[in-house]
């Protein structure tokens, strides 16, 4: 039986993770076994740059925190070593980065995740990974707005030039 100090430490870990899960827009669980140190370093760097927190955690800690946040559906995916990627700002970022790395490094296995409170399986993670990010969607939207406006500006300019030359 663990001592009071160890038990308190675990309770603190559960409380910290539960708070992060409550604030999370998305979460992805992975099995990282077999990654080399170099691969793991690249993965962690890419996740950090995307604003995603990535940490290896005990399944029991994740299980208790998930239960506290009504995410018990993650339980069935908590087998073997587990790392958890959490984003509080971007729903797509963890899935995009981890899916790309899972394709590049076959040893990285995506187990499941959560997006905006909904438990998703590996196929859901793959779908999310292939979804354009908010920034990409905004850029496309702005680009689609600019094209007709640019054409309109050219047409108006041509009309103005035609009227000026007719007035001369």
Task: Summarize this structure briefly.
The protein is an alpha+beta fold. 58% of the residues lie in helices and 16% in strands. It folds into two domains: 4-131, Alpha-Beta Plaits (2-Layer Sandwich), CATH 3.30.70.1730; 132-168.
What can you see in these coordinates?
- The chain has 168 residues and is an alpha+beta fold.
- It has two domains: 128 residues, Alpha-Beta Plaits; 37 residues.
- It has a five-stranded antiparallel β-sheet with strand order 2-3-1-4-5.
- A hairpin with a 2-residue loop joins strand 4 and strand 5.
- Helix 1 crosses helix 3 and helix 4 packs across helix 5.
- The longest helix has 34 residues.
- The radius of gyration is 24 Å and the shape is elongated.
- The termini are far apart.
- 28% of the residues are buried.
What's the count of strands? 5
Largest beta sheet: strand ordering: 2-3-1-4-5
By secondary-structure content and strand pairing, the structural class works out as alpha+beta
Could you please say which CATH topology of the largest domain applies here?
Alpha-Beta Plaits
CATH class call of the largest domain: Alpha Beta
Q: Report the CATH architecture of the largest domain.
A: 2-Layer Sandwich
What's the helical proportion of residues?
55-70%
Shape: elongated
**How many structural domains?**
2
| Biggest sheet layout | 5 strands, antiparallel
Residue windows where pLDDT falls under 50 for at least 5 positions: none
The name of the CATH superfamily of the largest domain reads Ribosomal protein L10, N-terminal RNA-binding domain
**End-to-end span in angstroms?**
98 Å
Give me the number of helical elements: 6
The whole-number mean of residue pLDDT values reads 87
The helix/strand order is HEHEHEHEEHH
């Amino acid at each position: 039986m663990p001592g009071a100090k160890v038990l308190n430490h675990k309770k603190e870990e559960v409380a910290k993770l539960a708070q992060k899960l409550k604030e999370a827009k998305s979460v992805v669980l992975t099995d990282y076994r077999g990654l080399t140190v170099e691969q793991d370093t690249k993965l962690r760097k890419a996740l950090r740059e995307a604003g995603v927190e990535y940490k290896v955690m005990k399944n029991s800690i994740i299980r208790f925190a998930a239960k506290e946040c009504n995410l018990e559906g993650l339980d069935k995916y908590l087998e073997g070593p587990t790392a958890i990627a959490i984003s509080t700002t971007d729903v797509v970022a963890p899935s995009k980065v981890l899916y790309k790395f899972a394709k590049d490094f076959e040893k990285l296995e995506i187990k499941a995740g959560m997006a905006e409170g909904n438990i998703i399986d590996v196929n859901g993670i793959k779908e999310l990974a292939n979804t354009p990010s908010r920034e990409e969607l905004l850029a496309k939207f702005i680009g689609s707005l600019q094209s007709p406006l640019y054409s309109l500006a050219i047409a108006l300019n041509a009309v103005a030039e035609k009227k000026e030359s007719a007035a001369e």
